[in-house]
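job 3f2a | input accepted
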Amino acid sequence: MGLEREFKYNGMNVDDAIRHLTRFCANLWQIHPFCEGNTRTTAVFMIKYLRTLRFNVVNDVFANNSWYFRNALVRANFRDLPNGITETTIYLERFFRSMLLGEQHDLRNRIMHVDWDKVEENAVQSAMPELQSANTSDELSLKCKNCTLEEAALLRIVQKKPTATQKEIAAEIGKSERTVKTITVNLQEKGILHRVNGKRNGRWEITGGRES
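job 3f2a | predicted structure (212 res):
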């Protein structure tokens, strides 16, 4: 906890931030201080912690995917080196990305099984273009691949409410209006965000973004 308390997310892109959050979550679960209820305790803690980072997270997300969440934590800490199996947070990352960014990921438990049928795995891989196509409907995931957490949070707000004022955005993400203004300017310079019809009666539009 001490290391996490000192950790700074400033300027970190979404992918790296989520990767860090999932490793922190997996390490926290690995402590296993109770005879039972460790996964529920970890879920409650992460909900409260993510809220301090200004994510609007509710218990339903964990409750509806409780078995997947638990097994993703296992895979994040499980290793069987003779059989070429090492710990991985990839499954936990899919859970967090679905929860925080609204992306669509396959959250079936069987996919995490170390002996998962390779035939079925190939079938899923062949269906990936279709899944990726579904994910492209999420503007944040598609157009802000290198955004910071603050930028992603702001985009998620204006995606839901294009007429949101900087004051409203500041209240939602827990930042000052000056910081919000800086973020919107940066996003506009990146070609991701655009203001239509002026400051007073205008609205925000999430645009295509510039090719890197």
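job 3f2a | The first strand starts at residue 193 and ends at 196.
job 3f2a | closed
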